């Protein structure tokens, strides 16, 4: 097997950690980052946070934890195919959703709305930024610093999106959102691995829940094409196995297309270092044809699953829990344990957001009950 490509991130020439530490013995700095992520408490909480279906709705649905593991699996395959750093992609993938609120996107949107309405100076809530905040500030595990003190390259990958206002305050890791440069190839690939993972597992979970059907999905080109191929190879296959064969074939097509298209771009542009990757155009991409197909699948899921009335009922309840928790704590901070109390109102709002964002689904429901009900 060939060594790392010249455009790969290398742990021995990392841009380093915010608090300098001696290099680890017996593993690289990127392995250490991955290991720190796996051992942190925010990572364990992912097990009880909603991806699309509430954690208690069924034992077989994805949670944020199993989603993150699937992203890591796909990202590592991509990294190995393209000779970039696998440990770094794995670290980014496992950490990318650490800042997610309870109740999936509904929880995050509601927390953002609460902050913006009630304390506009606090600058709202962005889940990518919160993931960075978890690893930079909120984890309390080390004697010498707050957070996990991860390498620049891991932090760069975790911060997928960021508004310009926040980017200005973040220093080195925010700079690319102001000067329009790219992150490392490891970060670009992990970002697309996230998309491959959720599009496919949401099809799987959606079918399992009964909220969407195979018949509906046959209107989506990428699904229909693979469905036909599997049936040709395995006529009369059991319907459950058929679905899982279609999904594994779709993941495979997407991974291979992404690998090929990215390899073509690398072959044309020949970046000689990570800095050349950062300065150039985006490198990780699907072919135009597959991009169109993946977008159509995404649109299908948006219309038929994420906005399904049964999902909307769940998200409506989730929004109410988040809104009412935020309001109760903000109007009377004495309801908060001492560790979440702050003098300054903007700091207080941020501490409340950190507290709510860190909750698992069931913890949030329990807190809501404790505050609003006597029984
Ligand atoms: Mg994700």
Automatic annotation (TrEMBL):
<keyword id="KW-0378">Hydrolase</keyword>
<dbReference type="InterPro" id="IPR006674">
    <property type="entry name" value="HD_domain"/>
</dbReference>
<feature type="compositionally biased region" description="Basic and acidic residues">
    <location>
        <begin position="12"/>
        <end position="21"/>
    </location>
</feature>
<dbReference type="InterPro" id="IPR026875">
    <property type="entry name" value="PHydrolase_assoc_dom"/>
</dbReference>
<comment type="similarity">
    <text>Belongs to the dGTPase family. Type 2 subfamily.</text>
</comment>
<feature type="domain" description="HD">
    <location>
        <begin position="64"/>
        <end position="199"/>
    </location>
</feature>
<dbReference type="InterPro" id="IPR003607">
    <property type="entry name" value="HD/PDEase_dom"/>
</dbReference>
<dbReference type="InterPro" id="IPR050135">
    <property type="entry name" value="dGTPase-like"/>
</dbReference>
<protein>
    <recommendedName>
        <fullName>Deoxyguanosinetriphosphate triphosphohydrolase-like protein</fullName>
    </recommendedName>
</protein>
<feature type="region of interest" description="Disordered">
    <location>
        <begin position="1"/>
        <end position="31"/>
    </location>
</feature>
<dbReference type="Pfam" id="PF13286">
    <property type="entry name" value="HD_assoc"/>
</dbReference>
<dbReference type="InterPro" id="IPR023023">
    <property type="entry name" value="dNTPase_2"/>
</dbReference>
<dbReference type="Pfam" id="PF01966">
    <property type="entry name" value="HD"/>
</dbReference>
<dbReference type="InterPro" id="IPR006261">
    <property type="entry name" value="dGTPase"/>
</dbReference>
């Amino acid at each position: 097997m060939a060594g790392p490509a010249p455009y790969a991130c290398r742990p021995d020439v990392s841009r380093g950690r915010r608090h300098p530490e001696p290099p680890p013995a017996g593993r690289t700095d990127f392995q250490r980052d991955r290991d720190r992520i796996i051992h942190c408490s925010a990572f364990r909480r992912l097990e009880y946070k909603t991806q699309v279906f509430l954690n208690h709705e069924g034992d077989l649905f994805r949670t944020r934890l199993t989603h993150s593991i699937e992203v890591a699996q796909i990202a590592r395959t991509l990294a190995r195919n393209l000779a970039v750093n696998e440990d770094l992609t794995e670290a980014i993938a496992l950490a990318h959703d650490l800042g997610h609120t309870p109740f999936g996107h509904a929880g995050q949107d509601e927390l953002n709305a609460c902050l913006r309405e009630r304390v506009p100076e606090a600058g709202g809530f962005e889940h990518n930024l919160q993931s960075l905040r978890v690893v930079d500030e909120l984890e309390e595990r080390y004697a010498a610093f707050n957070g996990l003190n991860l390498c620049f390259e891991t932090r760069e990958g975790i911060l997928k999106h960021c508004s310009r206002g926040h980017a200005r305050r973040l220093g080195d890791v925010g700079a690319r959102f102001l000067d329009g440069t790219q992150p490392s190839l490891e970060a670009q690939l992990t970002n697309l691995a996230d998309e491959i993972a959720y599009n496919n597992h949401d099809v799987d979970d959606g079918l399992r829940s009964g909220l969407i059907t195979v018949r509906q999905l046959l209107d989506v080109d990428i699904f229909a094409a693979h469905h036909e191929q599997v049936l040709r190879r395995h006529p009369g296959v059991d319907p459950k196995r058929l679905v899982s064969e279609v999904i594994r074939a779709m993941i495979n097509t997407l991974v291979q297309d992404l690998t090929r298209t990215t390899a073509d771009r690398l072959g044309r542009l020949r970046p000689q270092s990570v800095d050349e990757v950062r300065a150039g155009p985006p490198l990780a991409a699907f072919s135009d044809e597959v991009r169109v197909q993946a977008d159509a699948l995404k649109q299908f899921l948006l219309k038929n699953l994420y906005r399904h009335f049964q999902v909307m009922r769940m998200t409506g309840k989730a929004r109410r829990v988040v809104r009412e928790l935020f309001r109760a704590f903000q109007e009377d901070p004495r309801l908060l344990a001492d560790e979440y109390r702050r003098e300054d109102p903007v700091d207080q709002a941020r501490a409340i957001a950190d507290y709510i964002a860190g909750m698992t689904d069931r913890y949030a429901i329990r807190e809501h009950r404790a505050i609003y009900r006597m029984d």
